[in-house]
Design goal:
This protein is 93% helix and 0% strand. The longest helix has 133 residues. Helix 1 packs across helix 2. It is an all-alpha fold and 161 residues long. The protein has two helices and no strands.
Length: 161
C-alpha cells in the first residue's frame, strides 16, 4: 500500500521541483525558443528581401545586357553603313579620277595629233617646196614662198585626217 505521508511528501517534492524547474529551466528555455523563433523569422524576412533585391539586380543586369547587345548591334550596323558609304565614295572618286585621266589622255592625244599634223604639213610643205623649186628650177622670193605655203596649208588643213 501507499503510505499517505510518503505520497504527500513526494507530491510536495514534485510541486517544488516543478516550480523550481519552471522558474529556472522552463522559462529560460521558453524565452530562448521565442528568441530563436524571432531570429529565424527575421532571417527568413531578410533572406526574402535579399532574394527580391537579387532578383531586381538580375532583371536590371538582364536589361543592361540586352541594351548593350542592342547598342553593339547598332554600332555594327552604323559601321557597316559607314563602310558601304566610304566604299561608294572611294569608287566614285576612282571613277572621277579615271574619267579625268581619260579626258587628259584624250586632250594629250588630240594635241599630239595636231602636232603630228603640223609636223607632217611642215614636212610636206618643205618637200613640196623642194620639189616645186626643182621643177620650176628657180627660187621664189620670200613673199611668194609664204603665200604658196599658206595656200598649201589651207588645202591640207581642209583634208580629213
Amino acid at each position: 500500500m501507499i503510505n499517505k505521508s510518503t505520497f504527500v511528501i513526494q507530491l510536495i517534492n514534485m510541486l517544488v521541483l516543478y516550480f523550481i524547474m519552471r522558474r529556472y529551466f522552463f522559462e529560460p528555455v521558453r524565452k530562448f525558443m521565442e528568441q530563436r523563433k524571432e531570429k529565424i523569422h527575421r532571417d527568413l524576412r531578410e533572406a526574402e528581401l535579399k532574394k527580391n533585391e537579387a532578383e531586381k539586380f538580375k532583371n536590371k543586369y538582364k536589361k543592361q545586357l540586352a541594351s548593350a547587345r542592342d547598342k553593339a548591334e547598332e554600332i555594327l550596323v552604323r559601321a557597316k553603313r559607314r563602310g558601304e558609304k566610304e566604299k561608294s565614295e572611294i569608287i566614285s572618286e576612282a571613277k572621277r579620277e579615271a574619267a579625268s585621266i581619260i579626258k587628259r589622255a584624250r586632250v594629250e592625244i588630240q594635241r599630239e595629233k595636231t602636232k603630228a599634223k603640223r609636223e607632217i604639213t611642215r614636212k610636206a610643205v618643205e618637200l613640196s617646196l623642194d620639189a616645186a623649186a626643182k621643177l620650176i628650177e628657180k627660187d621664189l622670193d620670200r613673199e611668194e614662198h609664204k603665200r604658196f605655203i599658206q595656200q598649201y596649208l589651207k588645202r591640207i588643213g581642209d583634208a580629213q585626217w
